[in-house]
Amino acid sequence: MSASLSARTRWWALGVLSLTQLVVVLDGTIVNIALPQAQEALGLTDSARQWVVTAYALAFGALLLLGGRIADYWGRKRTYAVGMVGFGLASLWGGIASSGFELILARGLQGAFAALLAPAALALLTVTFPSGRDRNTAFAVFGTVAGAGAAVGLVLGGVLTEFLNWRWCLLVNIFFVIVGLIGAFLFLEESRAEGDNRYDVWGAVTVTLGLGSLVYGFSSAERGWGNPVTITFLAVGVVLIALFVWIETKVDQPLLPLRVITHRVRAGAFLIQALAGSVMIGATLYLTFHLQLVLGMSALSAGLATLPLPVATMIAAPFVTKLLSRIGARPLMITGPLVVAGALLLLSRITGGAYAAEVLPALIVMGLGMAFVFVPLQNLALAGVPAHDAGVASATANSAMQIGGSIGLSVFTAIYAAVVGPHGAGMPPESALVSGYSAAFVAAAVCMVIAAVIAVVFVRGSRQELYPSEAGMVAVHS
């Protein structure tokens, strides 16, 4: 562990960093329940409404790699503080926005500063708990917070919208920012990568534009997969990502050293994180629409109705942590996605009937399954990472979650539109909505089955390699 920090200070630092992770994750969903009110207040169209969610995830995911390198080179505590201040100012702007364009732009700025915050926080966690049982405990706590954050955002968004108004879904971040800055001053220690640190400018440009183009292309698929805009942006995104990979093989200090993603276990963890993000960000949006538009729940009721998901995750996490030390990560990473897939298939059987019969059981099962996924996932995503790459590996893990969530939301939206479009005119509106939501949940279930297959193929190694003991982290060989 970091020698200059006392044991008590380290656990306070864990609290501050976990709070930060909660903020950046929950902000991906906190506005979901408030979207109908924000749309009415600012005159947003239905297509623009989605961008209130997508702008955050797009900026967050596309800039995370650069944010990770800035954290490594400039200083992780310093980057954390700047990210906190910028995030707070962007949240303030969004909370007082007078037009839809201002709100979407503010959400994009939130995502950009979150791209500084998230990798800095995870890198600080890595250097604060470098090995041993305390590291495993810290990552279990951090992973549980990350896994529950999206659902917590839905609950908090419902409470704020019901008792105050939708603007407080952004203004509430100012409280978190103040706590985070005070905590950083008191409990966090500066660290940075040693040696000659130079920024990979062309790598940053190509990966940012490439990821942005891919997400925009998938977002445009709502108008049809054959739409010229969709095809063009997807093609440009693929070319730019390929160019980025080529650049990374040529520069001395790449933005993303390919060793980070070609490591078999880490590669599997990143892919699983992307697929889990598609469910936690994409599928939960359609769940909130179902609760409000079909079941007629208020914002508060809809927010509370999602609470069984994070509660189940938090209740299961301590048991999963114990199970992890006994059987290792691989069985959990295979079982968890399959449990979540089963829950989503159960959810896809909705008819517009009672919440307790059709939605509640699926949410409980999904929360249990997500505990099996998220408790070991953060540790696997950093398996065998050299200290010099801690920030960029952290950024890649978070980027996978956000880009997976934004692409997942876009794909689910395209599937929803394809189902509702041909049939909506001949069906009652409620039936058309239910059919579209059901199709989105089936697509999300397919994503989690794919995640289980990835775990079978990629998450390999001895139990000691995948879940290090007090002797320290052991690199997993590809």
TrEMBL record:
Membrane topology per the record?
Multi-pass membrane protein
Entry keyword set? Cell membrane, Membrane, Transmembrane, Transmembrane helix, Transport
Signal peptide (from-to) = none
Q: Which residues cross the membrane?
A: 12-35, 47-67, 79-96, 108-127, 139-159, 165-187, 199-219, 225-247, 268-289, 295-320, 332-350, 362-382, 403-425, 437-459
SUPFAM superfamilies attached to this UniProt entry: MFS general substrate transporter (SSF103473)
Q: Where in the cell is it found?
A: Cell membrane
- Which chain positions lie within coiled-coil regions? none
Pfam assignment, any one: MFS_1
* Cited InterPro entries: EmrB-like, MFS, MFS_dom, MFS_trans_sf, Sugar_transporter_CS
Main localization, broad class: membrane
The UniProt record lists the Major facilitator superfamily (MFS) profile domain at 13-463
**Record flagged with keyword Signal:** no
Q: Does the keyword Transcription apply?
A: no
Q: What is this protein called?
A: MFS transporter
Q: Which organism is it from?
A: Microbacterium pullorum
